[in-house]
Automatic annotation (TrEMBL):
Region (Disordered): 338-386
Signal sequence annotation: 1-18
GO BP of this protein: lipid catabolic process
Protein name: Dienelactone hydrolase
Compositionally biased intervals (Basic residues): 369-379
Organism: Nitratidesulfovibrio vulgaris (strain ATCC 29579 / DSM 644 / CCUG 34227 / NCIMB 8303 / VKM B-1760 / Hildenborough)
Length: 386
């Protein structure tokens, strides 16, 4: 297998067994806070050999609902970039699953291929980490998922603005410090400096200034973070990154035409103390980090789908996946843990209602007793730039 060569080259201490294959399942969550549905895709180590599976316009090589490999594995929370979806990095997710990781990816409401209304806004920055934490809450309450997840080994991995999401889950807080003169320093055609983007980012900077503190977005259950071609480097400073105290890896796309050097990956690297692990994918442009586009999207999004040749994309992804595996195995391991799944704690009994005082005079002999109506249960909800 070609990836094995790259893993040796990168000294990846992988211990995954040869009989692991990428299992796959989907689920949907309802976010009551915003009244939105969040779609989720999960890859996991399976004993069943994969086959071709079509879902929407995507073709995956997975074992759909395949029997999991016994044991509890590290969990990777995967966050896509703007204009993406839970399938944008399906090949990387499958490779991680085949090497001993459970990967859960969401389609971020308000910031995806069908809806970019939150782009360059405070809503985008704040809701993305919340959505990932809400996903984690759900996974750790799901009995079937708990059987395959080790809750003590969790990492966040993100691409583009998803990388920013991973850094915020690790404790980073945007302060807008570097935005004021960003466009004066940036190269011509920088996508953050179009009139539309600039107006939104001016408002975002003002929103950040007006907030004494951002809502708490750090998730202490996340033990490591990877930001691939991260966005919004100009919104962070050394002081705003000072709370990040878990292992971090920054992977820079050497030809990134969206999050351009030196204002994003390099700036974030400089803001982190201690210095994070840092790698450069020399051939990669921003969109080559995604899985190859399905044919239905190639004609619609040529600037996203056609930047590099299939051969170049394959080389980029082998190197990318090698970096991810080495870092994640180093900090989380990838061997299954075997320990009992804790039984969910029962809900506390309801507080008994106070009964009205009974009259001292007993009721008439032939009086009928009224039956108390049972309460009706509430209906359950059914479950690109940066």
């Amino acid at each position: 297998m070609a990836l094995a060569f790259w893993l040796v080259l990168l000294h990846a201490p992988t211990h995954a067994t040869a009989n692991m294959h990428p299992g796959f399942k989907t689920m949907g969550l309802w976010l009551p806070e915003t009244d939105e549905r969040m779609d989720v895709a999960v890859w996991y180590p399976s004993i069943r050999v994969p086959s071709e599976f079509r879902i929407y316009e995507w073709t995956l090589e997975v074992s759909r609902n395949g029997k999991p490999v016994p044991g509890r594995f590290p969990l990777i929370l995967l966050s896509h970039g703007t204009g993406g979806s839970r399938f944008s990095h399906h090949d990387t997710a499958a490779e991680l699953a085949a090497n001993g990781f459970v990967v859960a990816a969401i389609t971020h409401p308000g910031d995806n291929i069908d809806d970019t209304s939150a782009l360059f806004t405070l809503r985008q920055l704040v809701q993305r980490p919340r959505q990932v934490s809400q996903l984690l809450d759900h996974l750790l309450r799901d009995p079937a998922m708990l059987e395959m997840i080790d809750p003590g080994r969790i990492a966040a991995v993100g691409f583009g603005v998803g990388g920013t999401t991973a850094l915020m889950l690790a404790g980073g807080i945007p302060d807008g410090a570097g935005w004021t003169d960003y466009c004066e320093r940036a190269s011509q055609g920088d996508p953050y400096c179009s009139p539309w983007a600039r107006a939104r980012l001016d408002a975002l900077r003002d929103d950040l200034k007006s907030l004494k503190t951002l809502p708490v977005l750090r998730d202490t259950r996340v033990r490591a973070a990877v930001a691939v071609a991260p966005a919004y480097g100009m919104l962070f400073s050394r002081s705003s990154m000072s709370a990040v105290n878990i292992p971090v890896s920054i992977i820079k796309a050497g030809q990134d035409e969206v999050n351009r050097a030196p204002f994003h990956a390099d700036a974030i690297r400089s803001a982190l103390t201690p210095s994070p692990e840092f790698a450069i994918l020399a051939e990669a442009d921003h969109f080559s980090l995604m899985a190859a586009c399905p044919p239905q999207l190639e004609g619609i999004l040529p600037e996203v789908c056609g930047g590099v040749s299939p051969e170049t994309r394959e080389r980029i992804h082998m190197t990318l996946n090698g970096h991810l595996l080495r870092f994640l195995v180093t900090h989380l391991g990838n061997t299954p843990a075997f320990f009992p799944v804790e039984e969910p704690q029962p809900a506390p009994p309801p507080t008994p209602e106070v009964q009205p005082a009974q009259p001292e005079t007993p009721p008439a002999v032939n009086a009928t007793k009224g039956k108390r109506a049972k309460p009706r249960p509430k209906p359950r909800a059914n479950a690109t730039l940066p």
